[in-house]
TrEMBL record:
Keywords associated with the record: Amino-acid biosynthesis, Histidine biosynthesis, Hydrolase, Methionine biosynthesis, Multifunctional enzyme, NADP, One-carbon metabolism, Oxidoreductase, Purine biosynthesis
Pathway membership, UniProt: One-carbon metabolism; tetrahydrofolate interconversion
Function per UniProt: Catalyzes the oxidation of 5,10-methylenetetrahydrofolate to 5,10-methenyltetrahydrofolate and then the hydrolysis of 5,10-methenyltetrahydrofolate to 10-formyltetrahydrofolate.
Protein name in the entry: Bifunctional protein FolD
EC number(s) on file: 1.5.1.5, 3.5.4.9
């Protein structure tokens, strides 16, 4: 409701890809085009969407991921701030940085780049982020809002997967979906979103018995473990839709959790690694930032234009349950 995606451009982007391949790059580009339209409209109101990324230490992969986000922001008109703390920083220093950004009115979104060095308590630090600036969607209030159906900011990877499935015309109602991996970042929110779309969901993890048997019954399969080649191609049910979230470097090459070539012979559609889920995650992060900006300023982005939420009969309030805020019709109160 806050940021209404025009679905037709995304569908056209999905249809332009190779048969049987879910092209996350193309769909992400179509989504980012709409984000750029929104930031341009915000600029006319002298509002500059701003994302602050906090990175601790010198993890090479984290540095690369931060650069990806910075480039994405630059392409769509989002101001980017990189708060880089040394590996010797204390948890108290990281917390102080997050609190400073919480209080900074010019910052609309805050992201704590994971993993953190040493024995820092990532869960505590993520909880310290203002839930209205939590563009990763990991704050307990936002996760609770996902459970109750009131979340405005949802975890980027599973939300990006749902956008990709919708753009690709994948019908989920009544389908048996199997999710492998139960992290708070992907697996658990992914299961909730699939169930919300009326799929019947089985959530698997390292202790799941007969994994191959469960995979063979999946009409929609989402794998997010970070274990390269975990799912063999011949496990996949013929005609299934396969979403490979995992990415690992093996012998200098990037590989997913699924045997791509083997699974492609049986699946109706599959995401490649790289180029599938990754671009959708970044695009959804940009979308979440615009959502946060709109809520802050009482705006909706609809049909390519910004409108005042109140004039559209919508208000943002604390809602019910654990959601920090939600959009709902004024008339319903």
């Amino acid at each position: 409701m806050v940021f209404e995606i025009a679905t037709q451009p995304l569908r056209e982007a999905a249809q332009a890809g190779a048969p049987g391949v879910l092209d996350g790059k193309a769909v992400a580009a179509a989504l980012l085009s709409q984000v750029e339209d929104a930031t341009a409209a915000l600029a006319k109101r002298d509002i500059v969407p701003t994302l602050a990324v906090v990175r601790v230490g010198d993890d090479v992969a984290s540095e690369i991921y931060v650069r990806h986000k910075e480039r994405a922001c630059a392409k769509v008109g989002i101001d980017f701030r990189h708060e880089h703390l040394p590996a010797t920083a204390t948890e108290a220093e990281v917390l102080a940085t997050l609190r400073r950004l919480n209080d900074d009115e010019s910052v609309h979104g805050i992201l704590l780049q994971l993993p953190l060095p040493g024995d820092m308590n990532g869960a505590d630090l993520l909880t310290a982020i203002d839930p209205q600036k939590d563009v990763d969607g990991f704050h307990p209030l936002n996760l609770g809002g996902l459970m109750s159906g009131n979340a405005v900011l949802e975890p980027c990877t599973p939300r990006g997967v749902m956008t990709l499935l919708a753009a690709s015309g994948v019908e989920l109602t009544g389908k048996h979906a199997v999710v492998i991996g139960r992290s708070v970042i992907v697996g658990r929110p992914m299961s909730l979103m699939l169930a919300r779309a009326n799929a019947t969901v089985t959530l698997c993890h390292r202790h799941t018995r007969d994994l191959a048997e469960l995979v063979s019954r999946a009409e929609v399969l989402v794998v997010a473990t970070g274990v390269a080649g975990l799912v063999h191609g011949d496990w996949v049910r013929p005609g299934a839709v396969v979403i490979d979230v995992g990415i690992s470097r093996v012998d200098g090459k990037l590989r997913g959790d699924v045997d791509f070539e083997g699974a492609r012979q049986r699946a109706a559609a599959i995401t490649p690694v790289p180029g599938g889920v990754g671009p959708m995650t970044v695009a959804t992060l940009m979308e979440n930032l615009v959502r946060a900006v709109c809520v802050r300023h009482g705006l909706l982005f609809r049909d390519g234009e910004l409108i005042d939420a109140a004039s559209a009969g919508v208000r943002f309030d604390s809602g019910v349950g654990l959601a920090p805020w939600r959009a709902r019709p004024i008339a319903s109160t």
